[in-house]
Amino acid sequence: MSVNKLLMNLCFGQYTKLSARCYASVAANLVNNDSIRPKTGILMLNMGGPANIDQVHEYLLRIMTDRDMIQLPVQSKLGPWIAKRRTPEVQKKYSEIGGGSPILQWTNKQGELLCKKLNKISPETAPHKYYVAFRYADPLTEDTLERIRNDGVQHTVLFSQYPQYSCSTSGSSFNAIYNYYKTRELPSEMKWSIIDRWATHPLLVKTFAERIKQELAQFPSEKRDDVIILFSAHSLPLQVVSRGDSYPAEVGATVALVMQELNYCNPYSLVWQSKVGPTAWLGPFTDEALKGYVKQGKKNFILVPIAFVNEHIETLHELDIEYCQELAHELGIERIRRAAAPNDHPIFIDALADIVASHLRSQQPINPKFLTRCPHCVNLNCEASKSWYAKICKI
């Protein structure tokens, strides 16, 4: 018996509510079953990370030659040179966190839990199936788009896994989809819509607040009120900020709401990490902030990866090893802890599900902000991409 007939037989009834509940109970067990044709596909966009040491060079090469991510002079030559030069150093870092990035495992876990919950709370759009589209590592965006075509998805939701939008990260993923379809026909009969940012979602805010509370509880009660909470986000080149990229403001909005959720229980600051190259980047930098506060006599800290939804090299190595271990020892910090990324926290899974379910119920397939370029945008591909998205989302 086919899945469709099984669902009909199991769920057939006189009352709509009963049918919906029955459909949801069956659909909940069909998460990412390759034998079913999904009604709704959730395409989870992120930059990704190398699964093992051997993939590091290719991963860096893709980053260093992506002009949405980074702009270099004579990039076709300088980008590959930088990637080759940095490979041994980055391989060493990945070897120190287990030999590869865990971002795919976390994204798969999040996708599974998301679809299971969606099948229950949004049975009218079920069955749901998640897809992972990484920008610089497997599964690559173009490969995943081919899978979606082959699966015959009726409605594909492009769901950025960067809560705060940046042209360098979120924008690069969306442009990659546009670039793929520039020379291909869109799947016929497929509906498209976009979730491009969700920096202020209340359940995302609550997730970060709960992660911070867990770490604050590990400090002695007499020290707890003096702990400085450092919200650390990936920095951007100042030239990108000056063009009007909304990322710094959106990160700041998340921080403000998290501290409101915490009733402003502790001193806090927004700092920036992962600067690359000699050009000016948005600061203050996380390591320099720690040094500055220690000079002021501060001794207890919590680092919060406020712009990351799962663990990867920037949390597991930069924050945990370089700052919480090595730098803390060098500076004589008394106590420093790092809040976990959202990962599979139940409240975070509820956040993802609510974001998608609300989007599916809404009459807005695309955010007008997404269709608006930065005031000083210099990326002509961005202009073409946004026009294309307006067309496919029927704006």
Compute the average pLDDT.
90
Range of strand content: 5-15%
Q: Which radius of gyration do the C-alpha atoms yield? A: 22 Å
Show unreliable segments: 1-30
The helix content, as a percent range, equals 40-55%
Secondary-structure content class: alpha/beta
CATH topology of the largest domain: Rossmann fold
Could you say what the CATH architecture of the largest domain is?
3-Layer(aba) Sandwich
CATH class of the largest domain: Alpha Beta
- Strand neighbour order, sheet with most strands: 2-1-3-4
Q: What is the rounded distance between the termini?
A: 41 Å
Count of extended strands: 8
Major beta sheet summary? 4 strands, parallel
Shape: globular
Number of structural units classed as domains: 3
Secondary structure layout:
Layout: H1 3-11, H2 16-27, E1 40-46, H3 56-64, H4 75-96, H5 103-121, E2 128-134, H6 141-151, E3 155-160, H7 170-181, E4 191-195, H8 202-216, H9 221-224, E5 228-234, H10 238-242, H11 247-261, E6 268-273, H12 286-295, E7 300-305, H13 313-331, E8 335-338, H14 346-361, H15 380-392
Parallel strand pairs: 1-2, 1-3, 3-4, 5-6, 5-7, 7-8
Helix pairs in contact: 1-2, 2-5, 3-4, 5-14, 7-15, 8-11, 8-14, 12-13
Can you offer a commentary on this structure?
With 395 residues, the chain is an alpha/beta fold. The protein has three domains: 3-48 and 102-197 and 363-392, Rossmann fold, CATH 3.40.50.1400; 53-96, no CATH class; 202-338, 3-Layer(aba) Sandwich (Rossmann fold). It is 48% helix and 12% strand. The chain is built from 15 helices and eight strands. The strands form two sheets. The chain has a four-stranded parallel beta sheet with strand order 2-1-3-4, sandwiched between helices. Strands 6-5-7-8 form a four-stranded parallel beta sheet, with helices on both faces. The longest helix has 22 residues, at 75-96. The model is unreliable at 1-30 (pLDDT under 50).
